[in-house]
Specification:
With 231 residues, this protein is an alpha/beta fold. It is built from eight helices and eight strands; from the N terminus they run H-E-H-E-H-E-E-H-E-H-E-H-E-H-E-H. The two termini are 21 Å apart.
């Protein structure tokens, strides 16, 4: 089931990229494995999936250790959930990417803790494009004002932006959110060419095809691959 689901998602990613005149290989699929067991991750790996996203550090670290014990060393872990300021030290580890740096304080503490650990963390800046009170992230105007300072932090490397669009019954309604993030990224890349702004992490199961058409380089997909999770 997981292998078949993955193949269906990959075909949809490819079709969306081609519609937008893009090479499908420029879109990375992160399989969101939160609340799913390591056995499901193994099944996805058997079908060629290596990038997996978790949103709670308390769940992620036991999986990292269990995967290590089983010899699943090829996994590329992504931290996609909110990081509390008191837990930034716990977010320092073997992640390909932290998608959810959502305020200056978190960026500063991650940088401090990474330097203390002798490493540099690769991150994305989360932007609340829609303005929803329930969403985390910098406002676009706030990010414009602090981007230069964030780029100067020695313990993190910024690689682009992330957003979560509102859940819409009609996925097409999310297009303005994704387009706005792409335009903000392009603006920041022009203003701060010393930064690496290549990544746009946007789009989930409900709306990833629209996100790809608007420039997503990373999509975060869970239920379309693993099925509904227990809450």
């Amino acid at each position: 089931m997981i292998a078949a689901n993955l193949e269906a998602v990959r075909q949809r990613i490819s079709a969306a990229a081609l519609r937008a005149g893009r090479d499908p290989s420029t879109v990375r699929l992160v399989a969101v494995s939160k609340q799913h067991p390591l056995e499901d991750i193994e099944a996805a790996m058997a079908a060629g999936q290596l990038d997996f996203g978790e949103n709670r550090l308390e769940e992620l670290w036991p999986k990292v250790e269990a995967a290590r014990v089983r010899g699943l060393t090829a996994i590329r872990w992504h931290m996609i959930g909110v990081i509390q300021s008191r837990k930034t030290r716990d977010a320092i580890g073997p992640f390909v990417l932290i998608h959810s740096v959502d305020r200056v304080k978190i960026a500063q503490r991650l940088s401090r803790d990474a330097i203390a650990a002798g490493c540099i963390m690769d991150v994305l800046l989360e932007v609340n494009v829609s303005g929803e009170a329930t969403k985390h992230g910098f406002t676009p105007d706030e990010l414009r004002s602090v981007a230069g300072d964030l780029l100067a932090l020695p313990g993190i490397r910024i690689h682009g932006l992330m957003t979560m669009a509102p859940f819409e019954a009609e996925p097409e309604a999310t297009r303005p959110v994704f387009r706005a993030l792409r335009m903000l990224r392009d603006e920041l890349a022009a203003r701060f060419p010393q930064g690496d702004w290549r990544e746009l992490s946007m789009g989930m199961t409900n709306d990833f095809e629209i996100a790809i058409e608007e420039g997503a380089t990373i999509v975060r997909i869970g239920s379309a691959i693993f099925g509904a999770r227990s809450e």
